[in-house]
Amino acid sequence: MSMNRGRFLLATAAVVTALGLAPTTAQAAAPAPAPAQAGTAAQIGTAAQAADGLLYAWEHSWKGGRQVTWVNSSSDWADRNMRNQASSVHNNGYAGAYEDVLLYWDRGNVGAAYCLGNGNYLMDMRYDRFPYNGNGGGEYMDNNVASHRWGNYC
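The structure corresponding to this sequence follows.
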């Protein structure tokens, strides 16, 4: 290294230190903070959305294609032309009473039921199955939800 380059680097270090721009030993040793998440685990992949009291359903995975919403329970998703057509759902209901959504395998809110907790969603229902708690238990949920109702528990 040339003498001029060495003096320049030494002078630069002195200026940085004098201005307080150099990291302290504790700062230099501290790990970098983790990147911020864009919401809860239930919202990864989308921007956080304020609760609006709705159940959302999409005809394709990852909230793709036609979207429909409900504010109340529905005993037949044919009311929105979505019976046995949904591939992703999002419970964006308000926290408190009737915050969870039971998704049913059959019309009339009967058959196997999957409880979708408040603020949660299923982005690709090809990999989700109804629990063994009625007709349709064990079936994939993709294109198999026929009705829903709001409830107080999951």
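The longest helix spans residues 3-18.
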